[in-house]
Design a protein that fits this description.
Number of helices: 3
Number of strands: 5
Shape: globular
Order of helices and strands: EEEHEEHH
Strand content: 25-35%
Radius of gyration: 18 Å
Helix content: 25-40%
Distance between the termini: 35 Å
Largest sheet: 3 strands, antiparallel
Length: about 140
């Protein structure tokens, strides 16, 4: 098991949030604010697409699978959905994606390859099968 750590900090500008890890930083924002970055749900979809592309690249390398190019078009519907006991939550109710690739492999081999990409992508697994959230209390800073 690997543990990843990030920090997200609200800036003093509009709804902007700076998030980072390992010396890298992403700016989040909202279109109705200063619109200086993608919003969190757009970045969630982007993370899924990036995970698919990275997983495909690594699988192709390991299997000598002919993968000349790979990208994913993704869309998601954000809305209220009942998650149990009449508890409606705002969440993605559906995420749709279409992988695109250039390859000289057979259609059957491509289908098997894409099924393995989906099975091995940790972001897809997290979204599809859920994960446990644990709040570790809170800290009031001076």
């Amino acid at each position: 098991m690997s543990t990843y750590k990030v920090k997200a900090t609200k800036t003093t500008t509009g709804m902007q949030v700076a998030a980072g890890t390992r010396g890298f930083e992403i700016t989040f924002d909202e279109p109705g604010s200063t619109n200086t970055g993608m919003n969190p749900v757009e970045i969630l979809l982007t993370s899924f697409g990036a995970c698919q592309a990275i997983t495909a690249t690594e699988l192709a390398r390991k299997r000598n699978f002919d993968l000349q190019a790979f990208w994913v078009n993704i869309s998601g519907d954000l809305g209220h959905e009942n998650v149990g006991n009449d508890d409606k939550r705002y969440k993605f109710t559906e995420i749709r994606y279409t992988p695109h690739l250039r390859s000289d492999e057979s259609e059957e081999d491509i289908k098997k390859f894409l099924a393995d990409v989906a099975r091995k992508c940790p972001v897809e697994n997290t979204l599809a099968y859920g994960t446990k959230f644990v709040e570790n209390g809170f800290v009031v800073e001076d």
